[in-house]
Each structure stands twice: as C-alpha cells, then as structure tokens.
Amino acid sequence: MKKVLALTVSVLGILIAATAYGAEANKPLAQDYGITNYSIAYFENDKITYENYGYGIDENSVFELASNGKVVSAYIALKLVDEGKISLEDQIAPFLDANLLTDDKRLSEIILKQLLCHTAGFSTSFELNVDKKIYSNPGDEFCYSGVGYIYLQNVIENVSGMTIEQAAKYYVFEPLGMSNSTFEYAKTVTPYMSLSSVVLYTFTVFIITLIILFLIAFVVGRITKFKWYSLKSGLFVCFVMAGIINTLFLLFVFVSKVVIIFELYFLLIGLSLLITRKNNRLFYSCIPVLTIIILVLGFTIPISMPVTNDLVSKEPNCAYTLKSTSKDMAIFCRELMQQYNSGQGTIKDMFSAAVNIDPMNSWGLGIAIELESNGETYWHSGINPGFQSLFVLYPLQDKYVVILTNSDNGLTFSKDIAKTFFDINGYWDIKR
C-alpha cells in the first residue's frame, strides 16, 4: 500500500511539474528579455491553449494592445460597408467633423479604402495632436498612419451614430463574446518599461522646457533690469514652471505611467535647491549634476521597472487605447480566420493586398500581410509604453497565435514565439 501511495505521489509530482513547465514553457526566453508577465494563446488542431507567466496572470488578464485596435476598427468599418451605410470608394470628407476638415483640396479625394490600408497620405504621428497635414497624394504610397485611423474612427462614429466604444461593443465585443475588451479606461496588469524608456519619456519635455524658460527669464531679466530679478530666483521659478508643464504633459497628453517617477525626481531636486540655496556653487549645480547622473544611469543600466497604469484616462481612440486579453483576442482571431475561409462579405477583402509595400510585405484592408516561403501570414502588432503585443494568423497551417506582454521588449519576444510556433522565419515588421 505504501509503495502504491508513493508511486501515486511520484506520478502526480511528475504531472504537476510537466504542467508547470508547459504553463511557462517560454519562461527562460522571457527572462532573457526581462519580461515579467505574458499571456499567449495558441490555436492549432481546432483547439486553443494558453500559456501564462507571472504572478496572477491568466488568459483573462487585461493588457494594453495599442495599435491592434486598428484591426478591430477596420473590422467595424467593413461591417458598415456590408450594411450598405458606406462603401469602400466613398469619399470620407462628408462624414468628418468640422474640426478634422482642412483647406487642402486633397482631403476631398481620400476614400475609405485608403484609410484602411494606410495610403491616405497622413502622418505616422498622433501623440501630441492630430497632424491634419496631408504629406502625399491620396493613393500614391503606403505610410503607416495613426492619424489616418483617427480619421477612420470619426467616419465610423458619424456613419454608425455610435461612439467607437459603442460600435465596438455592437459589432465586435458582444457578438463574439469578448467580455474583457474595451477602448475605454480599464485596469490592466502593471506595465514594465526599460529604464532608458522611463528616462526618455520622463525628462525630455521637462529639460527642453526648463532650458527655454530659463533663457527667456535670463534675457528678459537682463533687458528690463527688473529690481526683484536674480539669476537664482529666476532658475527656481523656471524649475517650478517646467515641472508643472511636464506634469500636465505626462498626465493629459503623453504617458501618465511615468508621472510618479518624475514627481519623485522633482521633489528630490526641489529639496536640493532649498537646502543649497545659500551656497551658490552647489545651488547652480544641483539640477544639471543630478539630472546628468540620472540620465547616464538610465541609459546604461539594462533593467526594466514597474510603472503606474494611466492615472488620467484617455479618450477612447481606435489607434492606441484598446485593452483586451489573450482569450478575447483569440476569439477575435478565430473570427478573422473564419472570415478568411468563408469568403463572404466585405471582410474577406481584409486579406487581399490593397497596397504593396515591398516584395515581402503588403497591406490589406486593416491588416498586414507577409509573404512566407509557403503561403502568407496576416498580422498586426501593438506598442504602447510598457506594453507590446503581436498576433499572427497562418491560414495555410490553420494556426494562429496571440502574444501579450507588459514589456518594452515584448515585440522581439513575441516574434521569437511566433517563429517557433509556425516553424518559419517570419519578420512581422514594416517601416514606419
């Protein structure tokens, strides 16, 4: 009896160990990339399996998916086409709000299809404000554009009469059962950013603003000879103003994830200025010396660190605010695979090259297409500060994979996972 019990315990131990290994099969690779958490969904042999790594992480853990929201919005737009509410050849100008219209006559030439495949001529950048300038003639060339999808969102909202969140729920999330997906604010797993990225995001605007304000104060003080002006007081006032401007910038414009780190720096420097105010040499050296030390350490120490989630929620934006899970994205990818195989409706056009980028890459109506040695893969990636993700469909193998990470190194990791899963040397990258 004891032998049977011992044997049973041993077998259970082996099974538990095997299960644990299977659940974290890519743990060594993740550690090489400094990745703390990931969630992966694999589809093959008509079955979805999940691999999760990190404390509390499972297939229902919510990550930021960033630009992968563009595929969801493209799907919505094509659903509207199928309903006859708009066509791929329709000009977008009649469906735009007045604040997105410009005097450039080429805006009236842009059609829905060009927004979907990034040939409308808009800029790639959208972080600071919507750049409404058209840089190339509509239809002439490919340029991956966040701005173009901000225009697409406006078209979707005005054609459907819904917000982008409402449209996503109506056409995608609720019909497919994606219960943990949203373009609105949602609590996600803790993002991790490389120290170099933290330093870059935290201090760039602050340093530039401080230099500009101090130069202005110095020149004005010298010219006007204001009786209460002194170089020391001017520096302190400029430091405070630059700190306030940078805090507002991080909270409301760019990436509030690192604002707490900046506030700690701001407090440290502020206290140093107060302590050294009676020693001119130390006072004037506080800001440059401590800032240089932080910058040098930030760009030389190869570590990642946890940062906060957004403290101020951003407006729903199909270009970068999608939050979802590996389970929900596996469901969405299954829908894409079914649409690919059914060949019915306008959504099938998502998988046909609308514009050729180079001999290997093209873009369909909302998704990237890469030519492999045997067939094509369909993919999209997402990059937000502290989050990187990738999904790849390979219809020839009847397989797909979704990889979500909370790391600035996540995309390289994701590509390695996909290469191993499909046993191909895919690149899944285009010039942006």
What does this molecule look like?
This protein is an alpha+beta fold and 432 residues long. Helices cover 45% and strands 14% of the residues. The protein has an 8-stranded antiparallel sheet, with helices on both faces. A two-stranded antiparallel sheet has the order 3-6. Strand 8 (361-363) and strand 9 form a beta hairpin. Helix 3 runs parallel beside helix 5 (146-160). The model is unreliable at 1-22 (pLDDT under 50).
What is the fold's blueprint, element by element?
Elements (H helix, E strand, L loop, with lengths): L1 H22 L3 H6 L5 E7 L2 E7 L9 E4 L2 H14 L29 H5 L29 H15 L3 H13 L15 E3 H30 L6 H22 L6 H17 L4 H21 L3 E3 L15 E3 L1 H17 L12 E2 L4 E3 L4 E4 L4 E9 L2 E8 L4 E7 L4 H13 L10
Antiparallel strand pairs: 1-2, 1-12, 3-6, 4-5, 7-8, 8-9, 9-10, 10-11, 11-12
Helix pairs in contact: 3-5, 3-6, 7-8, 7-10, 8-9, 9-10
- Tally of helical runs: 12
H and E string: HHEEEHHHHEHHHHEEHEEEEEEH
| Biggest pleated sheet | 8 strands, antiparallel
Structural class: alpha+beta
Radius of gyration: 25 Å
The tally of beta strands, per DSSP, is 12
Strand proportion, as a percent range, falls in: 5-15%
Identify low-pLDDT runs: 1-22
Order of strands across the main sheet: 2-1-12-11-10-9-8-7
Can you give the helix content as a percent range?
Answer: 40-55%
Mean pLDDT, as a whole number?
A: 89
Gross morphology? globular
Distance between the termini: 67 Å
Give me some keywords for this one.
single chain; 432 residues; disordered N terminus; eight-stranded antiparallel beta sheet; alpha+beta
How do you describe this structure in short?
The protein has about 425 residues and is α+β, with helices and mostly antiparallel strands. It has twelve helices and twelve strands. A hairpin with a 4-residue loop joins β8 and β9 (about 370).
